[in-house]
Design a protein that fits this description.
Two copies of one chain form a homodimer. Chain A contains 16 helices and 17 strands. Chain A is an alpha/beta fold and 415 residues long. Chain A folds into three domains: 171 residues, MoaB/Mog-like domain (Molybdenum Cofactor Biosythetic Enzyme, Chain A, 3-Layer(aba) Sandwich); 78 residues, Alpha-Beta Plaits (2-Layer Sandwich); 154 residues, Maf protein (Alpha-Beta Complex), CATH 3.90.950. In chain A, the strands form four sheets. Chain A has a six-stranded mixed beta sheet with strand order 2-1-3-8-7-6, sandwiched between helices. A five-stranded mixed beta sheet of chain A has the order 14-13-15-16-17, sandwiched between helices. In chain A, strands 10-11-9-12 form a four-stranded antiparallel beta sheet, with helices on one face. In chain A, helix 11 runs parallel beside helix 16. The first copy, chain A, is globular. Chain A starts with a strand and ends with a helix. The interface between A and B is large, with 113 and 114 residues. Strand 2 of chain A pairs antiparallel with strand 2 of chain B.
């Protein structure tokens, strides 16, 4: 099995100013290609720390993928450091220079500076990976049978290089093993309750199949992974075991694919040739955002009314002023009227409406922070549910959204 | 200076199924307390890899913070492994047991299982950190002058322990140095152009002040960091240098605080005692989500109409059917009418309207993927702008949102 370490470089990672999303994406792509990631390391823009990380990861891995520190400014030291580490000297790469010039003249339409031109310089001991999306070229080094690839930290630049160049080249170099995952998603049951339900099954799994529990926002994903060389045999046993697993958790299963709740709901609507809309108070557009993040969601999603104020609830959704005053914005009657208003004014087949108190402020004795009312339904029938979350604002918003999406999914299946 | 390594444990991190947000948050909090994070390492749920990481990080750091692998299921092996590593034996912790029982009986209202009870077992060689938000206790170990703290991977449980117990205890143990950051945000100017503008300034900075460039979605953050022991002197020099930096980039500065674009806009509205609303097509509720993620945003934000379909644009915003048919949904006239409709129906002082083609599909010869029209204004005046982004769907959505927010910010300042 080919082992990989990912090194991400940048002070911003060590003071928490940015969240590293690159490593997760890289790990996903490498796994699909049958390359295992053993370790991910983040270090700052400090020569000693970068050199130590290179030395150490060489011991752990066959392939070391490096991102970050290739920008044009003084805090970006990765390139000269790698040049020294691999005993090279800096030279201008003509193709990279042409690319930088093209980007500044034709795409950015900004004057090119000395700093940008310097980005076309690379160590003479590397194979250059041209950057089609930005000005910093990637660099492929080899030393003592190990491969080192340095890429920019800008996510879409790194992703382009990985897809166009790095993974295809790794596939050519190595006889990669077969790795396959099967993932299902449950809702409304805890990790330990599932573990109890499937304990015997789990203990009976063969050595080369691994089961993982991935809890997230009220959902628990169960993932089976197999690796080896005989694709046909492994596929067959994985499918069998996955089929048994689905039966064991059938009461709580949402999907037997590695997809999101909003994706499951979207597919269901498309299959039934129906549309939906949302009326959001406390989630403030987050449900709409989840749905519209799916390419092609316009096929089943008409839109949302985000009504933060009483006035917006009354004007846009025709919620009765009296209901708001008597019952309060966070009440069963209000979400019911919001859902009705959305169905009527947006004209979809189904609607979701939510209203709640997400915190940190706004709690009341009878409606503490975390109280949420959800309504889902169609023109014939609307069902409601009161939930209570105990977390901080963002998590309360996310939990409300996923619960509401699941409620509509179940409503459609049941009605 | 006290050095820290963060080890995150979990196979899900190495196959990219989850993005590690814990490390960034931990690093932020530690930095504020004057504790430096030197390295972050992610390893899988594999005994050898975890043990190797513990050994190695002991060499790099004074404090090793560990998250993950404490769940109740068979893939969670961190606790028994730490027990062995520190030569302990497992015993029941009575307070942890009482907590687990309380959670299942009173909060989750689910039957408690043997697995949950086992979560109250801890190595006898650790100091237990009680978990007020979940069932897995934290563990504080010491060995050869080094501190090791193991916490659950569930973000809000880890955050609670860090805030309530770990950071206060570290403050008591160490005479921590003073670390201070000053961050400003620019918009509409590239990293290298800024670097050229402030080259002399950057070269003149004293040894103990570091400047970092953090580009993100069209914004570039500039961060000055100072560390040392004499707070009064360091504060003074940092303030002076930060003041000069602000003057140098004054044409492009959005804020001289480490805050988000939506936060800057919100404060401006509150200060002027005005409200705003949004009419979103292509961003699908993302602008509303950004704004409503700010606690207290109801003070300046009335709501949004997310109109994905022609019908929703006509019904909810009174966009003319003829305009849609003649000019297309992605056009100056349509965003202008959307903004007018939102101002009229939601009744806010200011509105943002956006319509565009975010990809991957939907492009046309005269309106390729990435084309966006934005309108911002009030009842007296509406201004529009056409932009073109060259990225994938999510990034195009994010860039549209931040550009629209900045356009309204500038409109308010100018009008």
């Amino acid at each position: 099995m080919i082992n990989t370490s990912i090194i991400t470089i940048g002070d911003e990672l060590l003071i928490g100013q940015v969240i590293d999303t690159n490593s997760a994406w890289m790990a996903q792509q490498l796994n699909k290609a049958g390359i295992k990631v053993n370790r991910r390391i983040a270090v700052g823009d400090t020569a000693d720390d970068i050199l130590k990380a290179l030395d150490e990861e060489t011991l752990h891995a066959d392939i070391v993928l490096i991102t970050g520190g290739l920008g044009p400014t003084a805090d970006d030291i990765t390139k000269p450091l790698l040049c020294k580490y691999f005993n090279g000297k800096m030279i201008v790469n003509e193709a990279a220079l042409a690319n930088v010039k093209y980007l500044f003249e034709k795409v950015f339409k900004r004057e090119i500076t000395e700093r940008n031109i310097k980005q076309a310089e690379v160590p003479d001991v590397c194979t250059v990976i041209q950057n089609k999306r930005g000005s910093a070229p990637g660099m492929w080094f080899e030393k003592a049978g190990k491969i080192f690839v340095s890429m920019p930290g800008v996510p879409h630049e790194m992703k382009g290089m990985m897809e166009d160049d790095v993974i295809p080249e790794l596939r050519r170099r190595f006889d990669l093993p077969f790795i396959e995952h099967r993932t299902l998603m449950t809702f409304g049951i805890g990790e330990s309750a599932i573990a109890d339900m499937i304990q015997e099954y789990e203990e009976s799994l063969p050595e080369n199949i691994k089961l993982a529990y991935l809890p997230n926002y009220g959902m628990v994903r169960l993932r089976l992974t197999v690796s080896g060389s005989d694709k046909a045999t492994l596929d067959k046993i994985l499918d069998e075991k996955f089929s048994t697993l689905q039966q064991l958790v059938s009461a709580n299963i949402v999907t037997n694919l590695d997809e999101k709740m909003e994706g499951v709901l979207g597919k269901l609507l498309v299959q039934k040739n129906k549309t939906m809309c949302t009326a959001e108070s406390c989630t403030g557009g987050y449900i709409a955002h989840l749905i519209t993040s799916i390419p092609g969601s316009s096929a089943f999603y008409d839109g949302s009314v985000v009504t933060y104020s009483y006035k917006a609830k009354e004007d846009l959704l025709q919620v009765n002023h009296e209901t708001l005053v008597e019952k309060g914005a966070v009440s069963e009657d209000v979400v019911r009227e919001m859902a009705k208003g959305a169905l009527q004014h947006i004209g979809s087949d189904y609607a979701i409406a939510v209203s709640g108190i997400m915190g940190p402020g706004g709690g009341m004795p009878d409606k503490p922070v975390g109280t949420v009312w959800i309504a889902v339904g169609n023109k014939e029938k609307i069902v409601t549910q009161r939930l209570h979350f105990r977390f901080e604002r963002q998590l309360n918003i996310q939990l409300t959204a996923v619960n509401a999406l699941n409620m509509l999914r179940k409503f459609i299946l049941d009605n």
